[in-house]
Design brief:
Helix 2 runs antiparallel to helix 3, helix 2 packs parallel to helix 6 and helix 7 runs parallel beside helix 12. The two termini are 21 Å apart. With 253 residues, the protein is mainly alpha-helical. Helices cover 77% and strands 0% of the residues. The chain is built from twelve helices and no strands.
């Protein structure tokens, strides 16, 4: 059964990745907005923002990476919605394949596409002056954190992809996720914010993830932020996975 699941998922993953390669503009679109934000904040607002003694692009990049992922997962919901409306899911259900492999193929496609987008953004940041003192283990920890964050958001994206009434509705859910980093420590230190805003910023998942990734980039001790960030990512992933599977079972029943 396990081999059957992995084989089916691999075949369906290949199908989804071929769709991505035929629509390269999808990855380009998901990277343009984060790069535009990075250029805007570094070269327009950066001189007026006090965020420590280091380069502002170093401070900014972790938040930009999360925005990149949040914008990318909207396409997961969009592609899933199109598959539902095209009737391909019903066709898959009539075939002797593992049912969950259909969803996992979309999730893994999202992971691959988002990792490509993240690499592109990091390359642009390097051109803009980003430098990191992180060692190999720190880079692996950063990659693991971003992968976990991508999986958590992707399973959230599966829910509107299965339940939305229109293609626009399927992808529109990502807009609040894209702007959540703006009310966090991604762009400015939270101690510069008014009381209620600061309280929200310091107790939402983006701040702990950004702080952990930022400390890893600089090679500094991460403290408790990394455990808080992992707890947020794992918690969101578990809850989103449960409701996504529930929505999927209702859809195909």
């Amino acid at each position: 059964m396990t081999r059957h699941f992995f084989g089916d998922t691999t075949v369906l993953l290949g199908r989804s990745l071929r769709h991505i390669t035929r629509s390269v503009d999808t990855i380009i679109t998901t990277t343009i907005m984060p790069i535009a934000f990075m250029l805007l904040f570094v070269y327009v607002f950066g001189g007026a923002i006090k965020a420590g003694s280091g380069s502002y692009v170093n401070y900014l990049l972790p938040g930009i990476l999360l925005i990149t992922i949040a914008s990318g997962i909207s396409y997961t919901a969009f592609r899933l919605f199109l598959d539902m409306k095209s009737g391909i899911f019903e066709r898959f259900q009539s075939m002797p394949i593992a049912r969950s492999s259909v969803l996992w193929a979309h999730v893994l496609t999202s992971l691959v596409a988002n990792l490509i987008s993240v690499v592109v953004v990091v390359v642009v940041a390097l051109v803009m002056g980003f430098r990191s003192g992180a060692g190999v283990l720190a880079w692996l920890a950063i990659a693991g954190m971003l992968i976990l964050f991508t999986l958590a958001l992707t399973w959230i994206a599966v829910i509107p992809g299965l339940s939305a009434k229109s293609a626009d509705g399927a992808s529109a859910f990502a807009y609040p996720l894209i702007f959540l980093p703006f009310i966090s420590s991604a762009f400015v230190p939270t101690d510069t914010m008014p009381g209620p805003v600061r309280a929200f910023a310091e107790h939402q998942p983006v701040t702990s993830i950004v702080n952990a990734v930022r400390d890893l980039f600089t090679g500094q001790p991460v403290g408790s932020d990394i455990w808080v960030a992992l707890a947020w990512c794992v918690g969101i992933l578990v809850v989103a996975y449960f409701f996504a599977i529930l929505a999927y079972r209702r859809k195909i029943s």
